[in-house]
Design brief:
With 384 residues, the protein is α+β, with helices and mostly antiparallel strands. The protein has 3 domains: 119 residues, Sandwich (Immunoglobulin-like); 107 residues, Immunoglobulins (Immunoglobulin-like, Sandwich), CATH 2.60.40.10; 107 residues, no CATH class. Helices cover 19% and strands 43% of the residues. It has 6 helices and 25 strands. The strands form 6 sheets. Strands 5, 6, 7, 9 and 10 form a 5-stranded antiparallel beta sheet that branches. Helix 2 runs antiparallel to helix 3. The radius of gyration is 25 Å and the shape is globular.
Length: 384
């Protein structure tokens, strides 16, 4: 069995690389795509007239040659960022791709390296393309992801049956099933499947697809996928949803959710809740909802302390309301003072202080909540 296209992900901190390739057929050259996935932690965001922005540059070489450069200027809410580097006319064999990411604001530089493979297909060996997952960036752990894959079938061979399995980090199978197939006139079989990821925990998973003739695997491919926390913001658990939306909900909206008679009613209440905040109702995408889910990710990651969820901390509530501060200053060791942090927002103007009086990382806000609420309401009215 020969794998003529491989999709491999590097489990590294910072930005990561994945790749896919197509084989060189009948003496021709092959091609490959290398994808750099950039996370929020890789770049320093700065304020501009267009909002919070990041500025970066990617450079790459293959086998020490073929210098590529791509620059980016992206809003801070667009993470994760996916940059695709395309390589054509590649000879069969292994190739080393080196990728450098530079944060143009801080000057920080990160480097990654990956070996890609181009195989040769002469029409007599089993081969396949790389399995593709859509969307190809970290997705919420609800709904479906789509798989697509193609297999080059040697002349005279029967069309194999396609199957998939999704493995967690412990290599346990959490999803499995059969692929739908479609044959072309050129001896290529295309396989498809929509796979539910609802109910899975956040983390890194790996899809493996295989073409089977009886019990024999004649071709296979693998690719990894990152799942983000799903967050129950639809009312499946009324108490959980209330906790998550309380910072941005009115008292009337909270009571409306509490009075809802059952799951269907709660889902309907929350659908209306998010629709009212959708800045572009004519499109399928709700930018406000997507941004709030990203806020919940960061709140959980950055503000949770022992025994206290991030959304239940003062900083977590402020972040849910106001988002990323324009200026953050940390004062952990000033003589005569408890450790404290200050957050400053420019529009509307808001300055806050958070003090850790016990030394355990639990920061309490000094200012009153009416100050924050006025700024939040002003921002909501301004953005509508």
């Amino acid at each position: 069995m020969t794998l003529f296209a491989v999709l491999a992900a590097l489990a590294l901190t910072g930005f990561s690389l994945s790749w896919s390739s197509l084989p060189a057929q009948s003496g021709n050259t092959g091609s490959a795509e290398v994808t750099a996935l950039i996370s929020e932690e890789d770049l320093l965001a700065v304020s501009s007239d267009e909002g919070s922005m990041v500025f970066y540059e990617i450079t790459a070489t293959i086998d020490g040659e073929g210098f590529l450069r791509q620059s980016g200027r992206i809003t801070d809410g667009s993470f994760p960022i996916s940059e695709v580097l395309a390589y054509n006319s590649l000879e069969p064999g292994g190739h080393i791709v080196s990728v450098t990411l530079k944060d143009l604001e801080s000057g920080a530089v990160g480097r990654r390296e990956v070996e890609i493979f181009i195989d040769a297909s002469n029409g007599t060996l089993w081969s396949s393309g790389g399995v593709r997952i859509s969307p190809d960036c970290p997705v919420r752990a609800f709904g479906y992801v789509s798989l697509s894959w193609n297999v080059y079938v040697p002349a005279g061979e029967e069309i194999p049956q396609g199957a998939y399995a999704l493995f967690d980090r412990a290599t346990d199978v959490v999803r499995e099933g059969w692929l739908t197939s479609e044959e072309s006139d050129e001896g290529v079989v295309y396989y498809y499947a929509d796979v539910s990821v609802s109910g899975l925990e956040k983390g890194r998973y790996r899809f493996t697809v295989a073409a089977l003739q009886g019990e024999d695997v004649v071709a296979s491919s693998s690719s990894s996928i990152g799942l983000l926390e799903s967050w129950d913001i639809w009312g499946d658990d009324a108490d959980e949803t209330t906790t998550l939306i309380r910072p941005i909900a009115s008292g009337h909206e909270i009571r409306e959710l509490e009075r809802a008679g059952g799951l269907g009613d709660r889902n309907s209440v929350m659908a209306d809740f998010w629709t009212r905040r959708d800045p572009n109702p004519a499109t399928r995408k709700n930018e406000y909802l997507d941004m709030y889910l990203l806020k919940l990710d960061k709140i959980s990651r950055c503000f949770s302390t022992t025994g206290i969820r991030g959304i239940n901390t003062d900083r977590g509530v402020v972040y849910a309301k106001m988002g990323e501060p324009d200026i953050v200053q940390d004062f952990p060791f000033e003589l005569g003072y408890y450790p404290y942090i200050t957050w400053d927002y420019f529009t509307p103007s808001l300055s806050l202080s958070f003090v850790d009086q016990d030394g355990y990382g639990f920061y309490e806000m000094v200012e009153g909540w009416d100050t924050v609420d006025r700024a939040f309401n002003a921002r909501e009215e301004w953005s509508q």
